Amino acid sequence: MSGLPATSLLLAVALLAAAPAFATTPDALDDPTVDPAPCLAAAAKLDDDDRAIALCGRLIASRKTERDDRIKALIARAGALARKQQVDRAIGDYDDALRLEPKLPDGLNARGELWLGKGDRPKALADFAAALKLQPDHAAARANHKALAMELERLGAQKAVDGKPSFDCRRARRAVEKAICGDRELANLDREINAIYIRVLQDNATAKPAELRALTRAHEQFIAARNASFGRPGYDLRAAMKARRRQLTGIDGY
């Protein structure tokens, strides 16, 4: 879902098909016409965004432009602006088009993709959801909404456990455990080490009993050494935990 929205490329083509077929002359830029065809034709070609922006801009600026033609021109210019990485201006055009006609699922989806590119997930999700409400079978909006919802769920789960170790800090008694609970990085390291250790055991569930015992014993030895060494001169808890993580991830053996 990153990069330019593919939807904006399709909108111009669809709008061109709905517009009357008029020829675009070399003088079109100097002609304050309210004919939408030159604007839409330029936008659909995708090879001269500056011309499309200029033509559509004149159509949008004209007081004689009909409402429906203004909407088409706004959407066409928004696509051209998005291709030129002028995202804020493109969003502004989608805003104006949707004010004139709120029931534009393609426009909502395209604007949502632009919001997502800017990193504004809540606004993107709202646009995808609004598009689906208008058109439940909108394939692009459905795919975008699903992917973003899953990402937000994952981020929410990470945030929920951020700064929490693998054990209950309310029951922490050892000095090393209290130190881990009091340091966000150490707490995350502890939780990560425990999760990797459990995964290693699961991945080796069919190994020989002696191999499983060796894995368990190595982890118990790490915990015992950590508990006994914490607070002694020269002992670096953070370095020891990072070293254990490296071991479990395979860099140093496992």
TrEMBL record:
It comes from the Bacteria. TPR repeats lie at residues 105-138. Residues 169-230 form the Lysozyme inhibitor LprI-like N-terminal domain. The keyword ATP-binding does not apply. Keywords: Signal, TPR repeat. InterPro entries: LprI-like_N, TPR-like_helical_dom_sf, TPR_rpt. Residues 1-23 form the signal peptide. SUPFAM superfamilies: TPR-like. Pfam families: LprI. This is Lysozyme inhibitor LprI-like N-terminal domain-containing protein. It comes from Rhodopseudomonas pseudopalustris.
